[in-house]
Design goal:
The protein has about 270 residues and is mainly alpha-helical. The protein contains twelve helices and no strands. The chain has one domain.
Length: about 270
Amino acid sequence: MNSQIRLYLSIVKIGFLEFLAYRLNLMIGLLRYIMTIAAYSYLYIAAFQGMGGVWGYSLADLLTYVAVGWFMRVLYHTKIDETIGHRVRLGHISLDLLKPVNFPLFYLSYAFGQSLNRVIAILLPLLLLSFPFLPLQSLPSLKVFSLFMVSLSFGYLTIFLIKYLVGLSAFFFEFNDEISWTVDMTTNLLAGLVIPLHFFPSLIYAMLGYLPFQGVYFVPLQIYLGKLEGMALKSALEVQFFWILLLSALSLFVYQKGIQRLTIQGG
């Protein structure tokens, strides 16, 4: 096996094991996701039960949207932005810059290790606990599920790049905790995790089509529910891929400017 591949796999392992060390946090995280899915589900049941549908969503669609969306959140929710900011404040980022690795690939591998840990420790138990109690739609066909996984992968890269850019902001501002929280909450709202984007006023919904956020949750969920087909589906995947390229280019630009401005603190 190529030495570079082994190196990045070892970084994935580090990210996996580091999250494993904080088992109490994982247990609390599992409880938080159970409560969140339950709260959203009961809210939609109370609001829309007995209605024929709202904005093209049946009650089963909405419950599936909520559950699958928060399942995705488990996968997406890495702490790369906070990690980079913390290492900048301590001065440890200098060690990362000296390593013979590609800086963004190093943190992508690290984030992927964190995601694998959360899939095993949180997502699998969450699936077992949720499906018996929620009247979710049946799994889509193999073709639709495959397209969903492609879109999910694009969404993962998009949210990573957004978090990575927030992490790089620490090169300029040192403290990026508030930026991390604000961007995270904004992404959840504008990406369609809090509510489907169709629930926004038509003008705002149209404006959101020009931003990268919809590719994080909304587009994969629309594919999962079978609401994107044909040319609309192809166009949505192309837009996701476009934003990955654009955010990658932006992150490279910010990184190059950031290392020129970086002041190492700590020791």
